[in-house]
Amino acid sequence: MARKPLIAGNWKMHGVLVDACQLAAGLKAHCRGLDDRDVLVAPPFTVISEVSHILRDTAIILAGQNVCWEGKGAFTGEISPVMLRDAGASAALIGHSERRQLFGESDSLVNRRLKGALQFGLTAILCIGETLEEREANRTLDVLERQLRAGLADVGGAQMSSVVVAYEPVWAIGTGKTATSAQAQEAHAFIRHVLADLFEKDIADQVRIVYGGSVKPTNIDELMAQPDIDGALVGGAALDVESFGRIIHFASSR
Hints:
With 254 residues, the chain is α/β, with parallel strands linked by helices. It contains 11 helices and 8 strands.
């Protein structure tokens, strides 16, 4: 089954308003006429509304970098799904390795965030991945299965059309190291196998699984040639219009 590629840019904690608007305008130009792939950006919360205005006549998807599980309430410092939608976003990153590693977000909290996003009509991008220590201990597949099963607990098969899985080996994020295409493909194929066990093969075959971890213009084509890699979650290279534009316009032999 053909899955529409998804190229996503995570701006992380970069960009005041003027920078974000310039980046969005440049991205808009690169995406004109594209209809065979989806493009998504996740700006900081403070600029989502303005970026939304710039991209309003495009098909570029806007996402929050995190999301609360409640629509409103006494949750100081959180952003609700309702607020994200009001600002122009239709998706959210959930369980990014920096949230897990730096801010202690557990699998159960990731699951709450994911279910909250789905409840309020957002596409949920579930991030999973192993640390260098876990890879060197040959625990990669165990970690991926645990995070996937826990993150998708109590999620129904019908809801999976609104879920994207992002495999991001923690040891390759912002380090300049990238999993080889074979390593990435092995992880993606395993993730799809677990999804088939959790739901059914037809559902697993429809879910997009994207790779994140020092994705660059120089490695995107090889990554996208792999049968189970359906896109990329891009960090640093997404902050440069030309670099991200080249990634968006990847060439694939698959």
